[in-house]
Design goal:
- The protein is α+β, with helices and mostly antiparallel strands.
- It is built from ten helices and 18 strands.
- Helix content is 24%, strand content 24%.
- Strands 2-1-6-7-8-9-10 form a seven-stranded antiparallel sheet. The protein has a six-stranded mixed sheet with strand order 11-15-16-5-17-18, sandwiched between helices. Strands 12-13-14 form a three-stranded antiparallel sheet.
- Strand 9 and strand 10 form a beta hairpin.
- About 1% of the residues have low confidence.
Length: 380
């Protein structure tokens, strides 16, 4: 599980911002928002342009899955003279702490990288000087690796101007070139990273390209439709769906009425956003380790937003999920608890509600009313 994340000098985060998931407030209610004492369900509030989406992008930087891969975008903070962004991830596997830290000049070029398991350093590597320190690959049962081959691979990624055009992390190189045991901590780490996902519901209603839609519909069967109908029903949308084969052989999705109604052409923005969630998150069989749902209720009535949150809390008890929202109706102890509600400030701080006030927040407090009245305004 992810217990703590830090990022510095990335996009609008000039100073270090910390997402602490291991600092629960000791509340006795809504224990299902935690997993083994670590926060597993979190709501993040913040004004527009405060950096909620950037926080999700920063969290996903460790993965191969980049939600917005636009290489022309500025990677480091535009106001900082520093040209290095810093990322630190702290995990807990088998009750052992794992710390992974790296620095990057841009999305593809590493400058520094280190991995620690417990109190032991597995490696520290300086890409700028091509030097490696504190090397103890026996900690991950990979001591037979010939490290020089990794540096040889880096040489293959230098262009004619002697500039690094891309480099692969040493962590992934170890996993790709070692016969590691299935219960290895480093295997658990990489598997967790590979199952981290980012979904921006706010951008999910953009028109789907007909070619992609056709490929998607070819993979849908009647069982999928029944699961999709059940999901819609849980969200308060009562509908029947049907697939029809067109004369040219392609499939098309319809609302099932006496006269079939085309789904994608007539569905509301909220229904399309729900379909996107189902397609990307709910239906896939491969479990998600960490899910960042940006603007998760952007198109939903407040009751549907609550239904959706409760759905994820019930059906994904062990998945760590961070939701960004502006919906203060969800800011209630009935659904969460103060240590699972976070405010991101415009100057780059992320603070849980129980740490954003000197008041001792209790289960009976109306958190939404306190928020609207300005109780936590120093942290916005």
């Amino acid at each position: 599980m992810l217990t703590r994340f830090e990022v510095e000098n990335y996009k609008n985060f000039k100073n270090k911002i910390v997402f602490a998931l291991n600092q629960s407030g000791g509340y006795k209610y809504n224990q299902n928002c935690l997993n083994e004492g670590i926060i597993s369900k979190a709501l993040i509030y913040g004004r527009n342009a405060s950096g909620k989406t950037n926080l999700g992008n920063a969290l996903m930087d460790i993965t191969d899955y980049k939600p917005y891969r636009r290489m022309e975008q500025i990677f480091t903070n535009a106001d900082s003279p520093d040209d290095i962004a810093r990322f630190k991830y702290c995990f807990l596997f088998y009750d052992i702490e794992v710390e992974y830290y790296y620095e990057k000049k841009d999305e593809q070029v590493f400058a520094f990288e280190s991995l620690s398991i417990g109190k032991n350093k597995v490696f520290t590597i300086d890409y700028r000087n091509k030097q490696i320190y504190d090397l103890d690959l026996s900690l991950v049962s990979a001591e037979t690796l010939i490290v020089d081959r990794f540096f040889d691979s880096l040489n293959d990624m230098i262009d004619d101007n002697n500039s690094t055009i891309r480099n692969v992390s040493f962590l992934r190189w170890i996993v790709a070139n070692s016969a590691l045991k299935k219960d290895s901590i480093i295997v658990a780490l990489v598997e967790y990273i590979n199952r981290m996902r980012f979904v921006s519901v706010g951008s999910s209603i953009e028109p789907m390209h007909p070619i992609f839609r056709g490929r998607m519909l070819r993979n849908i069967d009647s069982l999928y439709l029944r699961e999709l109908e059940e999901f819609f029903g849980n969200m308060g949308i009562d509908c029947k769906l049907v697939l029809r084969r067109l004369p040219e052989g392609d499939k098309k999705l319809y609302f099932d009425h006496r006269i079939p109604v085309p789904f994608f052409e007539t569905a509301s923005s909220g229904t399309l956003a729900l379909f996107n969630l189902f397609w990307n998150i709910v239906h896939p069989s491969k479990g998600t380790s960490f899910l960042f749902l940006d603007e998760f209720d952007a198109f939903y009535h407040y009751e549907m937003a609550e239904n959706l949150f409760c759905f994820f809390k019930e059906h994904y008890p062990t998945t760590q999920i961070a939701f960004t929202t502006h919906n203060t109706n969800l800011m209630t102890n009935r659904l969460l608890r103060p240590d699972c509600l976070f405010i991101i400030s415009q100057d780059g701080r992320l603070t849980s509600l129980n740490n954003a006030t000197e008041r001792e927040l209790r289960e009976g407090h109306n958190l939404e009313k306190l928020y609207i009245s300005g109780e936590f305004e120093d942290y916005e």
